[in-house]
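Encode chain A's predicted structure.
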Amino acid sequence: MNRHTLLLLTICIAATACKKEKEETPAPTGPPAPTITHRGEFSAFRSVDDFGWGPVENNSVSAIVTMADGTTMNVDSVRANGVLLGNLGPGTYFTIGMDLSTEALVWDLGSEAADIAFTHSSSGIGYPTVSAITSGGNVPSGSSYTLSCGTITGADSVYFSLGGLWFAAPGNVTSHTFSAAEIQALVRPESHMASIQAMRIQRATYDGMACRFGKASSRTVMVLVE
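Encoded structure for chain A:
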């Protein structure tokens, strides 16, 4: 979620040598921070899945819109590069199969009820890259499992997942080991999706909506947990 940094610059030191009637001129301050009434998560995913019959691209874009308290809410429209995203439920928008072969990515949102409308370009930041997953395709009973790839570039953060397990790491991390105890919690024997997702984020605020705009790349394989 968003990290809010509070800067408190308060200098209230009374100089005993100063005369009572002499007061220091307060330092000028900038405009007050906007009141946050809504939040939005906007993401574009370049995904490559390899489930045993060769790599397949499955690109998608998604958006989640909420009130400041986290309650989901619908808006009139959400578009990515002019494509209208489908509404999957309250505050949730999604479209698959978009052409994400270039860095061009422009978001448009409109909500008459919430009095919010903006256009935001993420074209200036590149998609991160994730090379092919190099881990084995099975996990023997009672073993740990290291999910890894060769290289990751241009990421702010990396997410490793195996079935219902997940781990978040800094953007330069290329592997994570799930412990034997964690593996034991998965349904076994069964094949589970193993994924490495690299994410890059921009932040901006429009009309009281605090937004995170992400570009992501991921690799996914199937792993047999014995």
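The longest strand covers residues 190-206.
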